[in-house]
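hiii, so i know i said id send this last week but things got crazy w the move. better late than never?? heres the sequnce for the chain we talked about at the cafe, plus the structure i predicted for it. fair warning i was half asleep when i ran it
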Amino acid sequence: MRDSYWLFVISILIMLPRIVSEFLFRFTSLRVVWVFRIIDIFDITLQTLSLLVLGLYVYSRYIYMRGKEYSMIYLVIVALLIGGHMMHFAANALDMHFREFLNEDPESAMPSSAYTLLHFIDEYLSHAIMFTALILMISMGSLAEIRGEPKSLGTLDKSLILFSGFILGSGLGISAVEASIPLYILMLAIINLTAIAWYSRKHRQKVGHHPFTLYTVTIFITLILSATVYMALFGSQSPREFIGSFIEEKLKLLLTSSLVYLC
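okay and structure toks below
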């Protein structure tokens, strides 16, 4: 399959499960299966699978032929990505179990030290590991691709790659604000973007002749811009709460209008 098609599918795989689960199950009575939120089930299954697909795609296309040392470093980074994702799932699932299942504030319901540990793992440590590993993983794929032969990309391929990068970059930018460490993630994206630009220039390669590098650069630029614009407009307000309250307000308005019409 063409690189542009792969990158489009991967972007949709990463973004769609979270969007679908948030829209379908956050505002309905069908939220929990046993003690798990349906949103968390989507997160631990489909989200994990999509990250693995991205990791395996980059490894098979660009990393595998670059030697054992490069491959080992890459595999350690992928392991950190999945480990950070699992860590965040466990901590966030426990926090939200208190809030949405038991209707209690975990900060007051749990011992102080236990909640501090849970909050640190959920909001800071897991996010730092996940974003660091994800950005480094993508960057390693891009740097490995630049060392290979350039490709001639048609208008359709370039458009699809730019669109795919925009989708994933926008989602990651909003997630960076949600992750409570947006400045660290922005700095990391800027450093890696600069490294890719310097490496491309050093090897006299054009970004537009390397599909995954074009995809990576689009992701980083969109991440930086979307996170910066959101923080400029709304400050540090949680995107999930902001978007969620907006949707909930519109749903209530729609329901009220429907009842008035029926009566």
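btw Residues 210 and 225 are 22 Å apart (CA to CA). thought thatd interest u
miss u guys!!
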